[in-house]
Fold:
Amino acid sequence: MTHDHDLVLRPTTAQTEAALNPPARRPATTPHGGASRRVTTGRTGGDLVVETLAGLGATTVFGLPGQHALGMFDALRRSDLRYVGLRVENNAGFAADAYGRITGEAAPLLLSTGPGALTSLAALQEAAAASAPVLAISSQVPTAGLGGGRHGYLHELPDQSASFRGVVKSVHTVRTQSQIPSAIAQAWKSALTVPHGPVWVEIPQDVLLAGTRLPVVTALDATPDELPPRPELTAVAAHLLSGADRPAIIAGGGVVRSDASGKLLALAEKLNAPVVTTFGGKGAFPWGHPLSLQSWLEDRHTTDFLEDADVLLVVGSGLGELSSNYHTFQPRGRVIQIEADLGKLESNHPALGIHADARLALQALLETVEARVDEGAPERVRALLAKVAERIASQDLTLEQQVLASVRRALPDGSPSFWDMTILAYWAWSAFDAKAPNTMHSAQGAGGLGYGFPAALGAAAADPTRPVLAVSGDGGALYSIAELATARQYGLDVTWLIVDDGGYGILREYMTDAFGQATATELTRPDYVALAESFGVPGVRTTPETLEADLAKALAEPGPSVVVLPALLRMFAPTHLS
Structure:
């Protein structure tokens, strides 16, 4: 009898010969010469990198070339991987971050040594804070210079990987070509094992450039580890929730990352428990649902409501600064915390800590909790949201609400949006209906400027079927303005809304409130419409009254576009004090 797997697993003699004897190589040199820079015209270590990525299932890579990394970039030429090149390494990292969030796949980020690598650090910090799977692969100086060896190489650092150990999930240093496939596969697995996050692989220049006789890399097994909850803990949690008088749920970004929104909805309805989503968990629960407390976490009424819960279930959140109303939240009831990041478990509040993937833990609770009847829960939710609305209405913030509502109406349901650290984004954290899970993203994890536009480019590369919105202030826009060239080069379907208030608006407010006046917050800025048009990207200057129409038109047209709104927006008053 002949079995199919026999036919698949036994290569022909010709295939074996081809794998063990790659094409002949003619040595050449890079413009600077030198033995360590000898390159070949056949397969090299760089090919092992791209073959491994393809074998793991990658289809798109982001990055920026540099001298030591040229072996990887030359190998892209011989692969089927799609390359999206940005103009600044940090922006390439933001694009990879968004690609990972949208697809749930590890997003390869190819970088060069030293300055190129270090420039990506802020983006990798955001990916770590938001649990976005990014696989950063950097070149290194030749092996002779590793570990304090020969010095004087361009871009050399005494210990490059040390700069990343406090940021990424794992660091992998390669020293020989045979280590490349396994190191990248281990990093891939690490990036996609919950909690997702960025990982770092570095490969010396000479290893990337040297010819190889290793067989072509085919499929690899890098299946991420699962993190199921301990059943004795979920049994206790189910008992507490089933017997609660006033249960409530805080849903964080872990619910979105683990694709657990459906299970969260089912559990909330079974328990009749009101749900608030953190800023990182936007869209994890339907905004208009009778049990939805929405996202008004910077509101004392919401804080009081959550403190009054006799059993509070926290899923996929560490209850950090923003999620705890600036650490003023003091729960009086029993807290159950489900968290995949062990370091965040009970880090801010004592709890029944369940170290687990949100999806698996919610499924376990669904199977064990008893249904609760609580006809008064929707009315308590309505009463709370009415108090929030009354508070906002008392502050003369019509313009801000008008602008945010215009953005929501103009953006098609299901289209993702990416928000920089700007006043309109701060409003959106609390007041914007994301409409669906995994559609609203911001830099609130690490809080760096310049995230919105390059991240939106990564999302457009991940899914070209939907237009993508980026929102920045004029200060944040200048961090990533060079990526207008990237948007034009690849024809990415991103509309960039720039709210131009002449400076760092939120810092202006903070400083004025704290010191009576602001310093170092005012900016000379370009004509953004003219600048966009100089890149070949259409631009329009709008007003609050015409914003909805102008934004909707830009989003409906293919390719990149810029909409500039000159406006001075204000934040709602802080409410973290009783």
Q: What stands out?
A: The two ends are 78 Å apart (CA to CA).
